[in-house]
Specification:
GO terms for molecular function: oxidoreductase activity. It comes from Acetobacter oeni. This is Oxidoreductase. Belongs to the LDH2/MDH2 oxidoreductase family. By secondary structure, this protein is of the alpha+beta class. The protein has one domain: Ribosomal Protein S8, Chain: A, domain 1 (2-Layer Sandwich). The strands form 4 sheets. It has a 7-stranded mixed beta sheet with strand order 2-3-4-12-5-8-9. Strands 1-13 form a two-stranded antiparallel sheet. α1 packs parallel to α3, α2 crosses α4 and α4 packs parallel to α5.
Amino acid sequence: MSEPARFPEALLRERCETLLTRAGASPADASAITRALLHASLVGVDSHGVRLIPHYTDMLRSGAFNPTPNRTLRQTAPAAAMLDADNGPGHPASYEAMTEAVRLATKTGIGAVGVFRSSHFGAAGAYALAAAEQGLIGIVTTNSDSAVCLFGGAVPFHGTNPIAMAAPVAGANPWVLDMATSSIPFNRVKLFRSLGKPLPPGVAVDTGGHPTQDPEKAAFLQPLGGEEYGFKGAALAGVVAILSAVLTGAAIDPEMAPTDAGTAQNVGHFFIAIDPEHFVGRAGYDAAMTRYLTRLRGSTPVDPNHPVMAPGDREWKEAADRTEHGIPVDPDTMRALGLSSH
């Protein structure tokens, strides 16, 4: 199988923003959506990158995403706020919510913002990173429509319900975790379908609840931990559902309309920002974080040719490569963006 064609970030940014504005998004919202998608594409999370543009333009045109949302932010306590996303795209609402969480945290040490009446927001790590880039720790969760069975369950219940966290590191790229509580995100199943590649074992099941590696037969996912330890992933998905939906008033996973239903979903997100200055202090935090990562990366590996890495190391290396050599784009997305490999 040939490698996907690669394209420069600037070209993809222009194509994505153009298609989103043509579909009805404001220039500011198109820019925020593209910012989040390119973050994912640069760090190698292609399932949540520019390949989502056709889906988002369809949602904007159908009215499933409100193309002209009137987002409303309301501070409810010294360190808390709520944001009504008015059924618009989740990306601009999420950047706005994390900006507010950071503002609150710089005053009180910690800030939390719940978002409701939102929609799919792409890769959660994009918004955690927005806090880390300002010197704060960022934590992000979101729920989604049912796509993952419970441990021992035969039908989907939770969404893929990711958790992301980013922590600043003095003089270096942030420490970044961005993980689904499912075995894999369902968008990765769709990516494998486009690439014609089999799924890894133990991540998906067919309509009968039986494990499958055929992406065309995959109906829903297994929780993180698979058949033996999936109770851990299912419980973490519940943590995300409580923070993102129960606490915000958004739809809980099994009551949410499916992504492809063409209607508003009332997705919930939760954003936390923590300012180290109000805890150990900036100098103490920077010194301890540097010491921690030095010892982590210096830990003895099983294979001397593959040193131990911190969360984010692999992604930052991939981002450097893609910045230099271009971002790979699968054939379906190339067609949607009007790109040619020649």
